[in-house]
TrEMBL record:
Superkingdom as given in the UniProt entry: Eukaryota
UniProt keyword annotations, A-Z: Glycoprotein, Repeat, Signal
Source organism of the structure: Symbiodinium pilosum (Dinoflagellate)
Domain Apple: 5-81
Pfam families: FG-GAP_2, PAN_1
Listed name of the protein: Apple domain-containing protein
First and last residues of every FG-GAP repeat: 93-146
Length: 475
């Protein structure tokens, strides 16, 4: 039997943040190699500056565990706990933009990489009504401070810049799905920003060469290393549900490398592109209204790469999904590409609309369902699984309809951890003051030692409360 050992602020000691500087690095690739040498559990980000030829490898703060703590405590007579190391900060932090307005939709999208968080605000009005913006926050000791406000150089009203965001190392990708490119209404675009020391500058504007009206390119964006994946919510020329584009960067030059094959026999009403996640060699696209197991039961389409070409999509469905489950409303791939977490907020695990999340593992090129997750206190209409984010051993899942503290649709979020071959609920998170209709947990993002969740106009960074497993050992 495995018991999850939980941490409290009183039972940890901070080793401190670590930043490894490699001043002689000659390229970003060399930086990445140094990061790989540290191991994926330690190296959380890479930055490289061409002018200074300076490479920074960001590692995680380490909190060392003093004693054996669990939900029930480890009985001293029966358990032997190993020395543990857990990565976390010890209190939640609310992110606040410098120009707050309820109409900005601050928190509609979020992304986190290392100690940097980006928050989309597609309703911002700096460059016209609903032109949009994105805010960048960086960690300073035990809090976060705003570093920059990003807007498109050619921003225009009703572009909704910030409806989707993604961050990887020193780059941020922002979708503006209602941008009108060359007079084509709602054709959409996406923008790449790059950090040079503490300054963020627009590096590129991306769009498909065959852009058409109402394509809404930039509906979902994902950034991983030198690769950007961008979806279109609707292709007006072919009347398809969506399209998926893959871009690569060399230096500062972004090039369209692929337009992924559209799933055969997929209906136009399937909401293909409702969610997106990627790793180095895999892309997952949600289609939450796919009729695989009944109307709007949902599905996810998996693409894999051999390094040169992308495969035809493979359809993934939950073993027990049914009509109305919306499987694929959210999807998250771990950085290793070995674990995939998929949300189904309409699943009837514990009542209508209670929701569920599914863990899939990649085995010999195939995706196999490993577990179905549902919290202990799940209830009808909680919408658990509306948002998901995962590493290979941690899962962050939002339940936007939860009546936390008895407050209607205030929302909550959960952290699960992998314990051997099982996944165990570790903790439940929510703002200190529950607010009716806030729907906390609509968006989730996890990176290393921190989990970020948003609700209507509120964004919080929580300690991930990462745990290690205390094996049950007779003395």
């Amino acid at each position: 039997m495995n018991t999850v050992c939980r941490l409290s602020a009183e039972d940890v000691s901070i080793d401190g943040d670590k930043t490894v500087n490699a001043t002689n690095a000659s390229s970003l690739q060399e930086c990445k190699q140094k990061c790989e040498q540290l191991g994926e559990d330690n190296c959380t980000g890479v930055e490289y500056n061409n002018r200074s030829r300076r490479c920074e490898l960001w590692t995680q703060p380490i909190l060392s565990h003093k004693s054996c703590l669990t939900g029930h405590d480890c009985p001293e007579a029966n358990y032997s706990c190993h020395t543990m190391q857990c990565k976390a900060i010890d209190h939640p932090v609310r992110l606040r933009s410098s120009e707050r307005s309820f109409q900005d939709s601050f928190g509609r999208s979020i992304g986190i990489s290392g100690d940097t968080v980006v928050v989309g605000a597609p309703g911002d009005n700096d460059r016209g009504d609903d032109s949009g913006a994105a805010y960048v926050f960086i960690r300073k000791a035990n809090t976060f401070v705003e570093q920059a406000k990003l807007t498109a150089d050619d921003g225009f009203r009703n572009s909704f810049f910030g409806n989707s965001v993604s961050i990887a190392g020193c780059r941020i990708l922002v979708g503006a799905y209602r941008d009108g490119l060359n007079g084509k209404k709602d054709s959409g675009s996406a923008y790449v920003f790059r950090r040079d020391y503490d300054v963020w500058e627009q590096e590129a504007k991306l769009s498909p060469q065959d852009a058409v009206e109402n394509e809404r390119f930039g509906s979902r964006v994902s950034l991983f290393g030198d690769m950007a994946v961008i979806t279109s919510a609707g292709n007006g020329a072919k009347n398809e549900s969506a399209a998926v584009y893959v871009f690569h960067v060399t230096g500062k030059e972004w090039v369209l490398k692929a337009k992924l094959p559209f799933p055969k026999n997929l209906k136009n009403s399937s909401s293909f592109g409702s969610s997106l996640s990627q790793s180095k060699d895999a892309i997952m696209i949600g289609a939450e209204e796919d009729d695989a197991h009944g109307k709007a039961s949902g599905a996810v389409y998996a693409y894999s790469s051999n390094g040169t070409n992308w495969s035809q999509p493979v359809r993934i469905v939950g073993a027990d999904t049914a009509a109305g489950d919306h499987f694929g409303c959210s999807v998250s791939l771990s950085e290793s590409g070995k674990t995939c977490l998929i949300g189904a907020y309409g699943h009837r695990a514990k009542g209508k609309g209670s929701g569920a999340a599914y863990v899939f593992k990649r085995h010999k090129g195939h995706w196999v369902q490993q577990h179905q997750l549902a919290p202990e206190d799940l209830d009808a209409d909680d919408g658990f699984g509306k948002s998901v984010s995962t590493s290979d051993s941690i899962a962050a899942i939002g339940a936007f309809g939860d009546e936390h503290g008895g407050v209607d649709r205030s929302g909550s979020a959960y952290i699960f951890v992998r314990a051997g071959q099982k996944w165990v609920q570790q903790t439940k998170l929510a703002p200190e003051k529950a607010k009716a209709g806030a729907e906390f947990g609509l968006v989730a993002s996890i990176s290393g030692h921190m989990a970020t969740f948003s609700s209507a106009e509120q964004v919080f960074v929580f300690p991930a409360y990462l745990t290690q497993v205390c094996p049950s050992t007779q003395r």
